Amino acid sequence: MGRHGWNSGARRWRFTALLGVGAVALALVLALVHTLPGDTGSTAGATRDGGRVHGTPSVPATARPDVGWGFTHTQFSADEGSAAATERARRLLGERPLPQIQHIMGWGADNPEPVEGRYDFEAMDRRIDFVRATGGTPVVTLCCAPDWMKGGRPGAGSTDWSRAALETAPDRAHFKDYAALAATVARRYPDVRHFIVWNEFKGFWNDAEARWDYEGYTDLYNLVYKALKKVDADIQVGGPYLVMDSLDPRQREHASRTLKGRWGTLDQRVLDAFDHWNRNKAGADFVVVDGSSYTKDDDLLPDEFAATAKFTAVSRWVRARTGGLPLWWAEYYVEPADGDDVRDGWSEAHRLAVHASGLIAMARGGTTSAFYWNPETENGASCAGCLWTPTGRAPGGKPLPMLGLLSRFGEEFPPGTRYEPVSVAADDRANVRVLADDEAVLVVNTLGRGISAKVDGRRFDMGAYEVKWLDR
User: Fold this and answer.
1) Which helix (H) or strand (E) holds 442?
2) How many whole angstroms separate alpha carbon 380 and alpha carbon 398?
3) In this predicted structure, what is the pLDDT of residue 39?
């Protein structure tokens, strides 16, 4: 099947409620105009046996609710491209297997159910096969919804891949249909033991009250949770995947009175939505959030490294309200985007150092799993912030610095790690970030110049924005 048109690898398509409502409404109106009564749509390429087990999955005996540090596949990934490049990427990821997220629709996957009861998992199958081949832990995000579930036109080849259409939630009348689709996915991939319900509350905004439609999301979540547990009680399910937006600390409207710091103030509407889901959820094996270290105005306060303290504060706030359930960050960002939502303004060394600081901050807050949103492109010799070079050409599939950091971090600090104190010389404390267990120490130079630092009783030189590992 062909890829859909919009580039979700380079563009994340963050949902902005106040600006997006009109576009979503327009998309629905246009869809309804083009949907004739009795029009069931083309079923070309779709089958009835969506729940048939795909491939030869190796199903683990048990599944832990936390999976560690990994990444998300976006529109372009290593499941397609030059055979030499894709094989190189597969071997590369197999050296240090990572947990990997794939959405069921969008971000590289086609419409899974273009017509009610007819399924197309060709693209999804390919992604799951790739994760299996690397030895990674597969995780599925249950987003987004087939067009016929949200007032759109049914039929293979009729999917509206526009941003507005994709970010539309299923109609309440189709919540049970969506839960049934989730169960179908779970039966097809029995080795997928972790499911995230929806993505960033997309389409769940109460325009009349200018707040999140947390009642609607929670109702959908509960139906999906129960449907998945009915397939297999050992399946691990989590939500609510809210964007933990922060505001300028001087802003008063919608500002939280309790969750704030030098990095800004959390939007109280997000916290209200989280609390409603937490009180009314049917159950959860882990908790999912998402967010950036910068404010909604793209301000890094007081600077890009200190801003990562937000991850620690939010992580502690969430864990305190959920009884210590394992905490996942489904997405996290430390570099503001440009007008096209592309993050390539920093040097790779700068990006790596701030990202390492973000990982440290999440770990300090009690986070056990987090996923890097991999901004892969289809072609090109370089790819800012990517994990490997694009696989569209034969020389592609080679490791990039971000993969080295993510793989090493996941290997050294898996779920269950007991972090230990590490000594830092008084005059170096302002310049470095550190994280340690009994075997390794991660040290990050936050300055754009070389320094001499004394950490863990050893003195050594560090280059500008260097990320260094020490053995203990």
Assistant:
1) strand 440-445
2) 12
3) 58
